[in-house]
Amino acid sequence: MKSSFLSLASHELRTPLTTILSGAEFLQSQTEGMLGENERRALDVIMRGSLRLNHIVDDLLEAARLEAKTLYMAQETFNPLPMINELLSDVRPSCEIRKLHLELQEFPDDAVIRGDVHHLKRAFGRLLENAMKFTPEGGLVQLAGRTLQQAEASALTKQLRAFSESFFDGALTESYLQISISDSGIGLGKEDQVRIFDKFQEVGDISGHSTSQARFGGKGVGLGLALVKGIVETHEGLVWVESAGPSQGSCFSVLLPLASHHEGRYVLG
User: What is the pTM of this model?
Assistant: First the structure.
């Protein structure tokens, strides 16, 4: 039922939403300097609400395409460190506003992975946004990377099988890159750590939902982590979360296969 809803809702909402956005943009362009303060404020509210809804519809469409395996994925061989540095630069102003400390810890500068730079950057951006949203003012958000050999990845089977049985059922590659984003935020109970990667799942009361993508504790429609999981698994990877419990912070980690040395030249991320 969730899959059917994703496909139907995303396509049926797209047409009327496009009409609303086009009409609001036309009004803004044609009435500049003609509207009073209240009218301008009302038009701004329509634009902001429409753009927020547009983001939700984009997420619904992406989830539906992942489900149907029709989302295009480029196959580039690249060093992910420039991509990570770009992401940190993008979110640093928001961290400064929220008085959050953002740190890049150790990260291998010679790691090479294979996949779609655009979709992976969006996936890690969602994880960073998630860490920022659920960390109170003055808190800490850290990003780190390390390489794991096949034996080290295999040793995680018992601990992480609940997050993806298919990952451990397949043949593991020679080596992996683990990228972890940890925070000093609200943390997670053990019972929530697997289910938050399911579509439309959010921790806590639905009354806590908000249209804000940045304010502390603001929640969405429950697609962000499901999209991260879908993108990572499309890259033959694994995503999981660790937390000692409520108020103990969280650490989201992604495991991606390292490209083999014979795959040739690579592009910068």
Answer: 0.81
Q: What are phi and psi of 181, to 5 degrees?
A: -120, 110
CA–CA distance, 122 with 216 (Å, rounded to integer): 20
Distance of CA 217 to the CA centre of its chain: 16
Domain 76-268, what fold?
Heat Shock Protein 90 (3.30.565)
**How many Å separate Cα 211 from the centre of its chain?**
17
Q: Strand order of the sheet with strand 250-257?
A: 101-104, 140-149, 175-183, 250-257, 238-242
**Sequence ranges of the domains in the chain:** 2-68, 76-268
List the one residue out of 254, 131, 107, 239 whose CA is nearest residue 184: 131
Q: What is the pLDDT of residues 117-169, one digit of tens each?
A: 999 999 999 999 999 999 999 999 999 999 999 999 999 999 999 999 889 98
Amino acid identity of 238? L
Burial class (CB in 10 A: 0-12, 13-18, 19+), 159: exposed
